[in-house]
Amino acid sequence: MCFCSPIDKLLSIATIVEQFFRHSRMVLSLYMRVFRIARSWQAQSGVASDTESERQYILQEACTLFRQNQQLTDQESIKKCIEECVARIEIGLHYRNPYPRATYLPPMGLATQKGRKMRAQQRLRKQAKPIYLESHDET
Question: What is the pTM of this model?
Answer without folding.
Answer: 0.68
